[in-house]
Amino acid sequence: MLVEQHEHYEELCALAASGQASQPDLADLEAHLETCPSCRSFTDDVMQLSAQSLSMLALRNDPNRDSLRNDPKILLPGRAPKASQ
Questions:
Q1: Is the predicted pLDDT of residue 43 greater than 90, yes or no?
Q2: Mean pLDDT of the chain
């Protein structure tokens, strides 16, 4: 597949992750993802990053965020996961 075609689908993926893709674009992307493992993997990564970003924004606006900051189950940027004991 040509690099330009992958770039097109990567752009559609970014639009889909941000909720800005049109229905025809979503249908085109979904059809392509059925046959392209590379774009499917890219889309999975982008969707995961998007979900994490939205979670971080929600946490940022949470009035209880200071108490959540000490919760070992929540991994915040710049904080390494705690080792299991």
A1: no
A2: 74
Residue 85 token pair = 């004991």
Spell 27-46 as b/e; 16+ CB within 10 A means b. eebeebbeebeebeebbeeb
Domain spans in the chain, listed from the N-terminal domain onward: 3-60
| pLDDT higher than 80, residue 51 | no
Tokens representing 48?
């995961």
Buried b (16+ CB within 10 A) or exposed e, 49-85: ebeeeeeeeeeeeeeeeeeeeeeeeeeeeeeeeeeee
